[in-house]
Every structure is written in structure tokens, then in C-alpha cells.
Amino acid sequence: MSYSVCLFGDSVAKGVIFDSIRRKYRVIKDCFAASMETQDHLRVTNYSKFGCTITKGRELLERHAAELSSYDFVV
Fold first, then answer.
1. Integer angstrom CA distances of residue 64 from 3, 28, 37, 42
2. What is the structure's pLDDT at 6?
3. Confidence (pTM)
4. Domain carrying residue 8
5. Any idea what the CATH number is for the domain that residue 69 is in?
6. Domains of the chain: total
7. Helix, strand and coil percent figures for the chain, each rounded to 5
8. Which tens digits make up the pLDDT trace of 13-65?
9. Phi, psi of 49 (to 5 degrees)
10. Distance between CA atoms of residues 46 and 8, nearest Å
11. Residue 51 φ/ψ region, left for φ over 0, alpha for ψ in the -120 to 50 degree band, beta for the rest
12. Positive or negative, the Cα torsion across 35, 49, 55, 7?
């Protein structure tokens, strides 16, 4: 059985880290969402945003509200 997951969050959920060598932010390939996607039974849609506050998060949820019922899990 396959499950669909819709993920909301901030830079942590997006996989953004500060690269101290390059002195800038970058997205890592092995973030939580990416590791979930490697599971054969999971399909992940990641709406996480860098700098997402509770206010921005609410706006994102409202923007995607119509499609949320199509997911098995919303995190």
C-alpha cells in the first residue's frame, strides 16, 4: 500500500542549513523529507519554506486547503 504525505514547515523541514565554508544557506539533499521519499510506500509533497513563520504557515495551509483531503497524512 502506498501513502501520500503533505509536509508543511520551516527551513528545518525544507532541509536548509548554513554552509559555514561558503557562508550562505543551502538545501541539503539528505533532509527529512528527502529521506521519507526514498521509502517505496511514501509520496511526499513538501510545501516547507525557508523563513516560514506561524503566519506564513497559516497562509500556506489556506492556499492549499482544497487539496489537503487528497493526502493520507498532513504534517
1. 18, 25, 20, 20
2. 95
3. 0.79
4. 3-74
5. 3.40.50.1110
6. 1
7. 30, 25, 40
8. 899 999 999 999 999 988 888 888 888 789 999 999 988 999 999 999 999 99
9. -130, 140
10. 6
11. left
12. negative
